[in-house]
Amino acid sequence: MSQANVPVPLTFKDYKSATKPIWCPGCGDFAVLNAITKALALLKLPLENVALISGIGCSSRIAAYTSVYGFHGVHGRALALASGLKAARRDLTVLVAGGDGDGLSIGGNHFIHACRRNMDLTYIMMDNEVYGMTKGQASPTTAPDWLKSKLTPEGTGIRPFKSAALALASGASFIARGFSGDPNDLARLIVAGIEHKGFSFIQALSVCPTYRPEHAEWKNQVQKIDREATADPLVAIQHIVADDGMSTGILYQRALPNLQPGGREPSAELADFESEFEL
What we know:
Blueprint: H1 29-43, E1 50-54, E2 69-72, H2 78-88, E3 93-99, H3 100-106, H4 108-117, E4 122-127, H5 163-170, E5 174-179, H6 183-195, E6 200-205, H7 218-221, E7 223-224, H8 233-242, E8 247-253, H9 270-276
Parallel strand pairs: 1-2, 1-3, 3-4, 4-6, 5-6, 7-8
Antiparallel strand pairs: 5-8
């Protein structure tokens, strides 16, 4: 092969589209986008072999900012769409992206069932503890005493989800947490999540300087986990429940059977089902 025919390795910039992000200045989602594109470049995945599915919200705009196949879906349904795509195209690397509101509120039912099906998907949830696109309402991960929302001026009084614990209880086989302030480490976690065969959940702590300016303190609060990832769910839940939600790294990883629909000839025709509903 001549030197002229040697393929040029893709860089993270090649995985970005020409569409410029319109997030607020300082938004952590910029760093999450960089982490995703760095991870894809590290894995040397061809553009046409990757799909990124998202829902609705600030973070869900991310599908338009990449040059891989993308689909900007409807609120809370990204995981359902991604599951259908993976069932039809098992050869694709399918990433799913969204926010804490999109994934744990209207999309909460899809989240728990995606975990238990354990399909080979990588779900990156950008958690900023607020609904940013709709002007700063409390989300499922907002602390009960957060007083800066006009809808809940005295706080919600509702305990927030521990998303890692929810993922573990629902059957996810890979659970990790990263921080937008450390995009290189977040890229490493995304690589590990993609390489894992099963449902990989990555909680990306993503700062929101517009509605949660107190997130500026996160850089002083996050700390990397100093232990190996456990495959024991009992050990994992103890660590997750005792943690303050600021520890980053792989919290749990276990090889479990994963659902792989397709690959077989249909056992019945559509007409056979239709006949059962004839009056």
